[in-house]
Amino acid sequence: MSKWMEMEKKYYMPTFQRMPVVLVRGQGARVWDEAGREYLDFIGGLAVNSLGHCHPVVARALAEQGQTLTQTSNLLYSVPQVQLAQLLVENSCADKAFFVNSGTEANEGAVKLARRYGHLHLDGAFEVITTFGSFHGRSLAMTAATGQKRFQEPYAPMPSGFVNVEANSIEALKKATTKQTCAVMLEPIQAEGGVIVPPEGYLKQVRDWCDRSGILLILDEIQTGVGRLGSLFGYQLYGIEPDIFTMAKGMGGGVPIGAFLAKTRADVFKAGEHGTTFGGNPLACAVSHAVMEYVLKYDVVGNAQRMGTYLASCLSDLKAGCPSIVEVRGRGLLWAIEFDRDMGEAVMLGCIEKGLLVNKLKPNAVRLIPPLIITRQDVDQAVTALREVIVR
Ligand SMILES: *Cc1c(COP(=O)(O)O)cnc(C)c1O
Q1: Which residue of 163, 195, 248, 311 pairs with 258 in a disulfide if CB–CB is 3.0 to 4.6 A?
Q2: Given the CA of residue 220, which atom of ligand 1 is nearest to it?
């Protein structure tokens, strides 16, 4: 065990099951550990490092804004904040943006916005329907929104106002909708919950149901946004538009920032009804603006789409040659490989030996969420390593 691992054990709360690697440097899709060993990074900071590690655009924006103005509070106007809001609004279905510091906080804001809408337009309705297997964050409220017992039980009782229903079932949603319901909140693809791709037509049916019931549709695009699925936002794949959506992971290129955005209909906050000290600070917004501008200008989404298609075909070949793989599923650059037994840990550790980082998603599955700037050679290298590990 390295000195850093020992110190972590001594000084850090033991909530993470760490992979046995201490990373000290990154460049593009590659990272290096303390012994100088190189890894191809198919975790990418959990879908955060959209442009890979230490992209020059990120490094430059950090340095420039760091020497100009980093934090002002939201008592004053902020140029990078307004610029980023404009860029996101002009490139999405939303009309207004609000910036926070994490995904969890973005979802909290979205739910507060939906509750305000319920107070103002739905006779005080406050309940938000979410699905089993979803993941919406780690605050108490977002733990209640997250439809997974293992996250909720250690902290019972849960805050009220959330109803978890069966995923990908329009009937379950309909049954759970009452006069108290103000919104439905979903991930376009359940990511942490297992990379569960909804059946054809489901999101359209949900959109129709929300319209018919007069309630809001919130999409949690924290993992799926910013090109991850091969479209700038996940909702574009399904031919629908949410009333509110959230984003975070990929938008800062590694710098913490989150956002919730709304259409005019749902843009109901008044002065003083929501706030944040750090959210929307010039440093994070300038970096995110640089990242988003780069993503749009250099068709990073197109690369994610093309590499996603290539990865999909390589994974399907991999499955054909590996009887222990029962399913490969995903879209764009978000994939899960599921095995017929609990070999996720062994595959994750075997990949480390081969110089590849993958995420153990479940006891019997691993997840691939590489940076959006990967090349065909990177895909080939990753799939070769996976094959060697899985078939041995
Ligand atoms: C990661 C994630 C969150 C939580 O984001 P944090 O930045 O960890 O708070 C919420 N929803 C989805 C879909 C996520 O993938």
Answers
A1: 248
A2: 13
Ligand 1 centroid to Cα of residue 71, in Å, is: 24
Which tokens hold the place of 70?
């980093």
The residue whose CA has the least distance to atom 6 of ligand 1 is 103
> Residue 107 CA: which ligand 1 atom is closest?
10
Per-residue confidence (pLDDT) for residue 333, from 0 to 100: 98
- pLDDT above 90 covers a percentage of the chain that reads 99
For residues 98-123, give the mean pLDDT: 98
- Ligand 1 mean position, distance from CA 324 (Å): 30
Per-residue CA distances from 88 to 192, 225, 251, 268, 300 (Å): 25, 11, 10, 19, 16
All domains in the chain, ordered by first residue: 3-55+299-391 (3.90.1150.10), 57-297 (3.40.640.10)
Q: What are residue 315's DSSP bridge partners?
A: none
User: Distance of alpha carbon 385 from its chain centroid, rounded?
Assistant: 25
Going by C-alpha positions, the residue among 146, 86, 109, 44 that lies closest to residue 371 is 44
| 47 C-alpha to ligand 1 centroid (Å) | 10
Centroid of ligand 1 to alpha carbon of 136 (angstroms)? 6
Q: Virtual CA dihedral for 236, 242, 248, 253, nearest 10 degrees?
A: 30
Query: Do 162 and 146 touch, CB atoms closer than 8 A?
Result: no
Decide: 149 and 209 in contact? Cβ < 8 Å: no
Query: The whole model's pTM is what?
Result: 0.97
Q: Which of 257, 254, 332, 340 is nearest to 51 (CA)?
A: 254
Atom of ligand 1 nearest to the CA of 190: 13
The pLDDT assigned to 392 comes to 77
Query: How far apart are the CA of 68 and the centre of ligand 1, in A?
Result: 30
Nearest to 197, CA basis, from 56, 276, 308: 308
